Structure of Xanthine dehydrogenase family protein subunit M:
Amino acid sequence: MKPTLAGYARASTIAEATAWLAEAEGEAKVIAGGQSLMAAMNMGLAGDTRLIDINGIAALQGIRVEGDRLVIGALTRHAELGRNALIAEHAPLLQRAVPLIAHKAIRSRGTIGGSLSHADPAAELPACVLALDGRIRIAGPEGEREVAADDFFQDVFVTDLGSDEIVTAISLPLAGADETYDIRELSRRAGDFALAGLAFVKRGGAHRIAFFGTGPRPLLARGVMAALDAGDTAGALEALSGDIEPQNDAHASAAYRGHLARVLLSRCLKDHA
Ligand SMILES: Cc1cc2nc3c(=O)[nH]c(=O)nc-3n(C[C@H](O)[C@H](O)[C@H](O)COP(=O)(O)OP(=O)(O)OC[C@H]3O[C@@H](n4cnc5c(N)ncnc54)[C@H](O)[C@@H]3O)c2cc1C
């Protein structure tokens, strides 16, 4: 199928993009890397879309340290996350995640802002940002706000973003010297979306573990985390089923996804608990 396009405009500032989104009253979509949006348009799933291209907005680019946070511009490509020295030093989990995302061509165009806004429940970066206790910076016609990742992801492809808002950046606490991190997933073939996966962070004895592919959104495994914080590895495995919400779909049954999540957690804990 060919996509139907009801209009295209290239914004050069955040204010311009959000004003155009507001004017369109929900009938326009931002395009960043286009790696999810174009696929949806080609399948006729995006309606008669007006596109607002944000690739020319310089303020959405760049990776920098601000005080005790690492700030990653929304237009940062997956491939850049994989090779950037500040990411390697301050958010190495993201670097570890990159090779698991799709294929080279998709990683060279796809953006972190696009991945988080698209909110595929099986995507790696949303789960990593959640495990890293990240915050999402958002701009709209009313100004700027910041939302914790845990409040940002709401349902399958649903986030806290309003139709006239864009993600401008992601901010993360800087990784400490004592930080342990890991990301594991199981998929049918390399490059496929995960059937189940987890992002693991241990900072100063406190654990944050986010599962992906096992619920309508990336999920913080709060029961697992509390058991691990108390030094109870067996209790962590027992708590898992209460923390995830695997669903049946064309790719796998809920029971199979739940089983994979348990396998991944037990392998991860063998190495890190
Ligand atoms: C074959 C294939 C395999 C893939 N496999 C994986 C995988 O294994 N793991 C994975 O994580 N991803 C995978 N992806 C998705 C890929 O990572 C996308 O790049 C990513 O999800 C979307 O980023 P994008 O910049 O391309 O966004 P776009 O496609 O441009 O946009 C996606 C959505 O986000 C919105 N959006 C984009 N940027 C912003 C912003 N700054 N503010 C507000 N809204 C915004 C758009 O309006 C649209 O609704 C795959 C894609 C394909 C085509």
User: Anything to note?
Assistant: DSSP finds twelve helices and 14 strands in the chain. The CA atoms of residues 12 and 58 lie 8 Å apart. The mean pLDDT is 95. The two ends are 49 Å apart (CA to CA).
